[in-house]
User: Fold this.
Amino acid sequence: MKKISLLAGVLFLSGCSFNAIEMADEPTVQVNDLADPEADGVINARDKCLETISGAEVDNEGCSTDLIEKVRVKLLVNFDNDSSLVDTKYYPEIKRLADVMKEYTTVNVSIEGHTSIVGTAAHNKVLSLNRAKAVKTILVNQYGVDASRINTIGFGFDELLFEGNDDYINAQNRRIVAEIAGGKEIINMKWNIYSVDEREQ
Assistant:
């Protein structure tokens, strides 16, 4: 009886081993396309927008989540008190805007100048406009953006970020804002374009 049981056990193990070898010999068939050439986190098998711009926010189907008609961008350009001179250390920030305009060739930009409440309203209107024009000059002369695509406006202190009159508040209120407009060509980017709300904190 022991010999029969032992033989049965050997045959059982042999059968299991034989089946495992047969399964391993069968080639694995790749049914779905798991590639993600856009690196948007959505594999081709379920990506319905295969030509999404690199870096764009996408939904679960790989399509851009938002087509923006107008974007407001705060340029991190600071000015000395009562000055419209742009320090060269801020040129990379302005170049960032120029790069966006070169990529999206049909968009236009409105450069807004804003000031603190120091000084008269009339003086600050002129000062803020001169600051906006200074940024425009750099976009045109330094980075080759067509001047016809750039509008400038000076708001003075009509649109303050913060009420008050101390050094910190005045520095925050002295700012440049770029409003980019151009149909629905600009795609919401994760890191290339920042909203005013995010950058004016």
Residues 2-25 form the longest helix (24 residues).
